[in-house]
Predict the 3D structure of the following.
Amino acid sequence: MSAAKVEVRDVRKTFGSVEALRGASLSIAQGEITAIVGDNGAGKSTLVKCITGLIPPDTGDILVDGSPVHFSSPKDARDHGIETVYQDLALCDQLSVWQNLYLDRELTRGFGPVQFLRRRQMRSEAHRLVSDLAVNVPHVGRPVRRLSGGQRQAVAIARGVMWARGMIVLDEPTAALGLRETAQVEGLIRRVVDAGQTVLVVSHNFEQVKRLSSQVWVMRAGAVVTGVRTADVTGEELVGLVTGAITAV
Ligand SMILES: Nc1ncnc2c1ncn2[C@@H]1O[C@H](COP(=O)(O)OP(=O)(O)OP(=O)(O)O)[C@@H](O)[C@H]1O
């Protein structure tokens, strides 16, 4: 299945007495970069976790390409074409770039219990992907621990591109990066969309949201309070929408 288009309708989630989501709704358009912004505690991570199968909503619907889905694990979301790049990146430091790209999804050949890794094929396909996306890594055989923060983020995104069949979710993709590496990762995110994927990005960086996204949803106190085309809003207005100083543009 592919996840070209995702819709969230009236999703609620409570943790004990905390209402993390109190009826959140939004839509994610195919082939675009959609951003979610909001202050600390607004519910962004919780909403993203519901979309990516990490936690189930209490009530409400998530629709993938128009059909309701019920994810009980990230694997369910992946089976629907949704790949997630979490802030911790989930890379294995001692393994190489290509081994990380195939982590837990290694290509094998053989019969029954006797399986061999297709190392050469994985390495060459990893090399092709990294070249096609112009990922800035020295070579795919290099251990990930020897890469910079930006290069590690790029490897994690490339892994998402490799396995996604429709949508990639990026949680604060450049939070830990300097200016130059941020620019490189933003370039990569644009190429992900050029390669036909849909991107959902959570970011605290309003300038980045302005540079990257076509649509932005604003969350406040567990609800999605407004959605605008990014071109129609200034950075200042975005800040106002997030804080509640303004309610519409
Ligand atoms: N596992 C949990 N147990 C209890 N409360 C939680 C849990 N996860 C989130 N919350 C609460 O739900 C609310 C929304 O949190 P969430 O992490 O979704 O916000 P956020 O917008 O992603 O914030 P931030 O930008 O700080 O990451 C907060 O009040 C938070 O404390």
Notes: The pocket of adenosine-5'-triphosphate is lined by residues 15, 18, 20, 38, 40-46 (CB under 6 Å).
